[in-house]
Design goal:
The complex is a heterotrimer. Chain B is an all-alpha fold. In chain B, 77% of the residues lie in helices and 2% in strands. Chain C is of the alpha+beta class. The mean pLDDT of chain C is 88. Chain C folds into two domains: 223 residues, Rossmann fold (3-Layer(aba) Sandwich), CATH 3.40.50; 107 residues, OB fold (Dihydrolipoamide Acetyltransferase, E2P) (Beta Barrel). The chains are: A alpha+beta, B mainly alpha, C alpha+beta. Chains A and C meet through helix 5, helix 6 and helix 7 of A and helix 5, helix 6, helix 7, strand 16 and strand 18 of C.
Chain lengths: 357, 293, 357
């Protein structure tokens, strides 16, 4: 296992990149600590797969270095980096049995037969496939195949990190739960460094201790699931995490302080300079509907089973509010925001209270 | 619903008629000849299985069949590995792909009789480029007189003509393998041979079965090449079943034995095709099981 | 109005669809919800006329259309894969079904402009599909389905290959898109959350049978069978086998009696089922079912947390608002409100009073 350091990495698929737009990765500096469970979250095209491939050595970055425990591996090929990877679609060796599949990476590295047998048995038990060892791997279900792909990584004693590239894409929702929970338990038990790439916030947040959110070739925030939800550093994080995403409202400054959509932001940081584009972010979960506050027009209510989503017109701005199952929504509601849960953004980046001038 | 169905039958009718004329009726005629004897003047007598017994007892038939099998075996032994080897070394992307594909397809586009003529001239010791240069180099090469040289010429011809078909089929199998498989194999530390053995070969197996089937049937029915180049000689060294058949039917006008022989010939091909078909569908079954569970 | 009367489908001796009767009306989305292989696609193929049913009849607006091939019906289909004509511009792609029909130029232009506006494609009309993102490509396919004003629109997991956030947005737009077209719209999905977002009516499917059909929320709240409840639950449904003999209910399992105090349950052997968010911390009200469970692991989603718990050999998931991560091994006192408990007979059918709310 190793600490993986990504230092000043930029990458472009063009031969002669000119501007920032030509870079799939604009500049990445990040450290994956030993034994951490990380998620790399972002929409398609944000550069997350490029970053993963750079770590595994399938792609060489245009600029910057990759260090494993301080050792520069930028020029090392995949097979010498001791990385394991689980792909979107299960990769199994059709002609082999389940046990042979698991033994393959060991045999390639010349591990002795007795040792191979011992470790394969151990891994079959860990994956819950003990009774399937002699079965042909091609006949298995998608989730079992994915387990084998993972097992081929876990079985090696020399693995620095295990990378997952949207591994649950082809798995049914209910099986996703099962596999995700197993994955998490495997991490707790075996303690490998794991990096899980996905566009699905549920997968990212439930799997990882630390989530790395990427947007347009940059890392916009690294934090725990709670951090990302409660203190999004960028409006993109607010939008991308949470379902529905955070409301972003234009902020008006007048003599008395700041307001968004007619709702006074309290306590107003009066000394805040009003340069740049100021916006307020408030999660639908933190919008209160009642008899007091700024009046709003109720446009629509969607009942989603365990939650109700109200769509409101708040002084010309669209606002979403999420309320628990069965809660009453007044027909002409007034809006307030939960204290301490409104964030201020200048040019999309969060302005934290402590750093105000 | 019903009128739609009948319309469909109408559409198929011309094809059925064509197949009847081109395959079924001639085949029945041949079956007819094979159990009859004639003394000319369109007078036929029932002969039973006499011709079949005669053919099966003749050394000439077994020799020709032996030649056919040896020829097909050698052809497959060379063309399949060579085709796979070429496919493995063809570029997977980039501008080279199109050029490679066209180059590979060229020999396939040349009509068979032309191929025969090309090689017949090419190999001639007096005026052929190959023949004369070999002669100059001091190699004693003459396909008209030496049976080994004749065989070598026929095999080289067939390999030159058809290896690219195998290569193209194998290539089609190769490009359908997702990148993730290669990446996973690299991560698992697989050697080049292991990648071939466990990733590429299994994925190519299906198309290769088809390639083997096509090449076997085609080489087993070989006619034009020996007919144009060697005419079955020297001696009987390149007299394959088809050549023998034509000599018997057209040259000697022994319709009965020729018909019996062609029926046997037909059955042999049918048998091999069936074996291949069985092997291939067994593959399919396994694949289907894998996909379902 | 599309009506299926005892329609069944077999292929090679295997039953894909058991005799099914279903009546679908225009104006709202009809969702087919079920895991992979439950028969969603088979059923759609029957509706479209791509396959001929083994038995039963299909009626469209009262007329028998059984066996009428797809090209003589006015059916539009959108698939999971983005299918567009790669060499045609977006404009021509959208216009193609009308051009085939020989509609006048002006009418085509108007229809294309309207569909493009609805789906936000106006600025992309002159591009080629390959120059678009996945989400945009799928919008083009949807626009094509809209312009042809089909009698029947079949959407087979159209959003499955899209990013999570994009899916969320398109899902919200979809019901409105087809609302006024007068088409019967059928939408297949594996995800319960998707069915809830789309609203309309939902049919739950399991192993080639429709287990329930009705307004989406009703199916969600009052499942007619255990199978339907399982299908319509993400996170997975929690269940407990219960026995009530002589008015004293106890779990039908190796669970220490002290860990489980059940409230009112029907007599005999039944299955108690409930949704993860209905399991609450604490004692609950007087008539609540109470359990002492052991924490297995927890997953934090930011706004909410999933706690995996064990009650003897039984595994449950608990969904709690906010950030909450008890340590594995910790014992928790939890309760289930009597109104949220659902009971099913041994045959898996809902028992009266089995309601979610």
């Amino acid at each position: 296992m190793a600490r993986i350091e990504i230092s000043g990495v930029r990458h472009s698929y063009l031969r002669a990149p000119q501007s920032d737009e030509d870079y799939a990765l604009r500049r990445i500096d990040h450290v994956w600590e030993t034994g951490g469970a990380y998620a790399l979250l972002g929409p398609s095209g944000c550069g997350k797969t490029s970053l993963l491939n750079i770590m595994s050595g399938l792609v060489r970055p245009t600029e910057g270095r990759i260090l494993f425990d301080g050792r520069d591996v930028t020029d090392l090929p995949t097979e010498r980096r001791n990385i394991a990877q689980v792909f979107q679609f299960p990769v199994i060796y059709d002609t082999m049995t389940v046990a042979e599949n698991l033994a393959f990476p060991l045999r390639n590295r010349g591990v002795r037969d007795a040792e191979v047998g011992r470790r394969v048995d151990e891994m079959l038990a860990i994956l819950g496939l003990a009774d399937r060892g002699r079965q042909r791997a091609r006949g298995l279900s998608a989730e079992d195949k994915q387990k084998i792909s993972l097992g081929r990584g876990l079985i090696r004693s020399d693995v620095n990190a295990i990378l997952f590239d949207e591994p649950l894409t082809v798995i049914d929702p209910l099986m996703k739960w099962e596999l995700r929970t197993q994955l998490r338990q495997l991490h707790q038990r075996l303690g490998h460094t794991m990096v899980y790439v996905t566009h699905d916030q549920t997968e990212a947040l439930t799997f990882a201790d630390q989530v790395v959110v990427m947007h347009e070739g940059m890392i916009v925030q690294v934090g725990t699931p709670a951090d990302l939800f409660e203190r999004p550093q960028h409006t993109f994080v607010g939008y991308f995490i949470g379902s529905p995403g955070m409301n972003v409202l234009p902020v008006r400054a007048d003599g008395d302080g700041l307001s968004a959509g007619g709702v006074r932001l309290d306590p107003s940081p009066l000394s805040l300079s009003t340069e740049g584009r100021l916006e307020a972010g408030v999660r639908p979960e933190h919008v209160r509907l009642g008899r007091e506050g700024a009046p709003a027009r109720l446009l629509r209510v969607d009942d989603l089973g365990r939650r109700r989503i109200a769509r409101l017109d708040l002084s010309g701005v669209m606002l979403l509010a999420a309320l628990p199952e069965g809660s009453e929504i007044p027909s002409d509601p007034c809006v307030t925001f939960e204290p301490g849960m409104v964030h201020l953004y200048r040019d999309s980046w969060r302005v934290s209270g402590e750093r105000l001038p | 619903m019903k009128p739609v169905n009948q319309k469909a039958w109408l559409l198929v009718a011309p094809v059925l008629a064509l197949v009847a004329f081109s395959a079924v009726i001639p085949l029945m005629t041949v079956v007819n000849y094979s159990v009859q004897d004639t003394f000319g003047a369109n007078q036929f007598f029932w002969a039973g299985t006499v011709w079949y017994e005669q053919v099966l007892a003749s050394e000439r038939f077994w020799n020709a069949l032996g030649r056919n099998l040896v020829f097909s075996f050698i052809i497959l032994l060379i063309e399949i590995p060579l085709g796979v080897f070429i496919a493995l070394n063809m570029p997977k992307k980039g501008p080279g792909v199109a050029a490679c594909l066209v180059l590979m397809a060229l020999p396939l586009l040349i009509p068979w009789n032309v191929v025969g003529t090309i090689w017949q001239v090419f190999g001639r010791v007096d005026i052929g480029l190959l023949g004369s240069s070999l002669a100059l180099a001091g190699v004693d090469y003459n396909y008209v007189q030496d049976p080994v040289d004749a065989w070598v010429t026929l095999i080289v011809m067939d390999v030159w003509h058809w290896t690219s078909l195998v290569a193209l089929l194998a290539y089609a199998g190769l490009v359908s393998i997702p990148d993730a498989f290669y990446q996973a194999a690299r991560i698992d530390g697989a050697s080049g041979w292991a990648v071939f053995r466990f990733v590429q070969a299994p994925k190519m197996a299906r198309v290769l079965t088809i390639a083997v089937l096509l090449r076997f049937m085609d080489s087993f029915m070989i006619y034009t090449e020996p007919f144009v180049v060697t005419g079955g000689g020297p001696g009987n060294s390149t007299t394959f079943l088809s050549i023998d058949l034509v000599q018997m039917a057209v040259g000697q006008f022994d319709l009965g034995p020729a018909a019996a022989m062609s029926i046997i010939y037909f059955l042999i091909i049918l048998l091999f095709s069936w074996v291949f078909y069985a092997v291939m569908t067994r593959h399919d079954d396994e694949g289907a099981k894998g996909g379902q569970s | 109005m599309l009506e299926l009367q005892d329609v069944s489908f077999r292929n090679g001796g295997e039953v894909h669809i058991h005799p099914t009767s279903l009546s679908l009306s225009p104006g709202e989305i009809n969702v087919l919800l079920g895991p992979t292989g439950s028969g969603k696609t088979s059923l759609m193929r029957l509706m479209a006329g791509l396959d001929r049913p083994a038995s039963g009849r299909l009626l469209f607006r009262g007329a028998d259309v059984t066996g009428v091939p797809v090209r003589r019906r006015n059916v539009a289909m959108v698939y999971q894969q983005f299918i567009n004509y790669p060499t045609w511009t977006v404009r021509r792609n959208i216009a193609s079904p009308l051009q085939v029909r020989g509609v006048s130029r002006d009418e085509i232009d108007e229809a294309v402009a309207r569909a493009a506006r609805l789906l936000g494609l106006t600025h992309l009309l002159d591009r080629l599909p390959t120059q678009l993102s996945g989400g945009q490509q799928q919008r083009v396919a949807l626009a094509r389905a809209i312009v042809r004003k089909a009698d029947l629109v079949l959407l087979d997991e159209p959003l499955a290959n899209l990013d999570y956030k994009l899916r969320e947005e398109l899902r919200e737009e979809l019901p409105a898109l087809f609302r006024d077209a007068g088409s019967v719209v059928v939408y297949a999905t594996t995800e319960p959350a998707e069915a809830l977002l789309l609203g309309g009516r939902t049919a739950t499917l399991s192993e080639g049978r429709i287990t329930q059909f009705g307004p989406t929320l009703e199916v969600y709240r009052t499942p007619a069978s255990l199978s339907s409840a399982h299908t319509f639950s993400d996170p997975p449904l929690n269940v407990l086998a219960v026995r009530n003999e002589g008015g004293r209910p106890f779990p039908d399992n190796e669970i220490p009696e002290i860990a489980c105090r059940l409230g009112l349950t029907p007599a005999g052997r039944t299955t108690l089922a409930f949704r993860p968010h209905h399991l609450r911390r604490g004692e609950g009200s007087q008539d609540a079912h109470r359990f002492e469970v052991e924490v297995v692991s927890s997953e934090i989603m930011g706004s909410e947390s999933y706690i995996h718990v064990a009650l003897g050999p039984v595994r449950w998931v608990m969904l709690v608002e906010g950030v909450y991560a008890p340590a594995p091994g910790e014992r928790l006192q939890v309760s289930l409100d009597a109104r949220s408990a659902m009971f099913f007979s041994e045959a898996g059918l809902a028992l009266s009073g089995a309601k979610a709310e």
